[in-house]
């Protein structure tokens, strides 16, 4: 089992962009954080499946099993 870090940030239009630092080409988006996470997870599976089919070495895990999220507070 491998674990990859996913970074989700809002862009200037309010769309959430999800990236996977261990695989720079894996980027997706969504109207919500959850949608962006679901979409990038599908993209990540696709990228890893393609790498396996091409006998490429998969990148090592770069994350732990836990989830970390930032919180924006208006104080």
Describe this structure in words.
The chain is an alpha+beta fold. The protein has a domain at 7-53. The protein is built from 1 helix and 3 strands, in the order E-E-E-H. It has a 3-stranded antiparallel beta sheet, with helices on one face. Strand 2 (16-19) and strand 3 form a beta hairpin. It is globular and about 40 Å long. The mean pLDDT is 88.
Number of strand segments: 3
Q: Which percent bin holds the helix content? A: 25-40%
* Helix-strand category: alpha+beta
Please give the radius of gyration in angstroms.
Answer: 14 Å
What would you say about this model in short?
The protein is 28% helix and 16% strand. The chain is of the alpha+beta class.
Keywords:
globular, 75 residues, three-stranded antiparallel sheet, 1 helix
What's the SSE blueprint?
Blueprint (H helix, E strand, L loop, with lengths): L6 E4 L5 E4 L7 E4 L2 H21 L22
Antiparallel strand pairs: 1-2, 2-3
């Amino acid at each position: 089992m491998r674990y990859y870090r996913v970074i989700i940030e809002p862009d200037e239009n309010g769309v959430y962009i999800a990236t996977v630092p261990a695989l720079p080409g894996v980027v997706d988006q969504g109207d919500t954080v959850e949608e962006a996470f679901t979409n990038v997870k599908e993209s990540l599976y696709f990228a890893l499946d393609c790498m396996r089919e091409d006998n490429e070495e998969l990148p090592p895990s770069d994350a732990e099993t836990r989830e970390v999220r930032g919180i924006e507070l208006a104080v």
